[in-house]
Amino acid sequence: MKKVGRKSKYFIIVEKWNTILELAKFGYLDEEICQYIGIGKTTYYKYLSENTEKAEAIKRQKIVANVEVENAMQKSAVGFEHVEEQLEYTPGGAEGKTTVKVVKKTKKYNPPNVHAGKFLLLNRRPTKYKERQEVDLRVVDKEQAKKEIQEMFE
Questions:
Q1: By residue range, what is the domain housing residue 92?
Q2: How many Å is the maximal CA-CA distance in the chain?
Q3: Residue pLDDT, tens place only, 4-46
């Protein structure tokens, strides 16, 4: 006798497993993956907690996505060279076919991106580089402070 009722949500995860891995590889968040395949976060997390191999596979895919972004950010922060190809087309004439006449390759340089560098430093070394500097304005010795101020203006 055939079972009656709806399919298990786990069945949807198993059925769309390759899609889930691809989404994780492209950097989608767990919430976005759940929404895309049509299940709740609770079901998704419960499935992954019961299937540790699958959870590890998703972690690996997310690491790949993060490393690719970090490498691109690093490359942008320090500047890089790349080759740009430009195609020139010639009209086909009597036959009506357009053909590629010349492929020009040009070496170009992208200068360092200051914002990418700032972002990397703020996030990789937060103790050394901060968005906001903290300055202690309390004066311990008033006489010493007065001397230092006078020396600055002399």
A1: 80-130
A2: 99
A3: 666 677 788 888 999 999 999 998 999 999 999 999 999 999 9
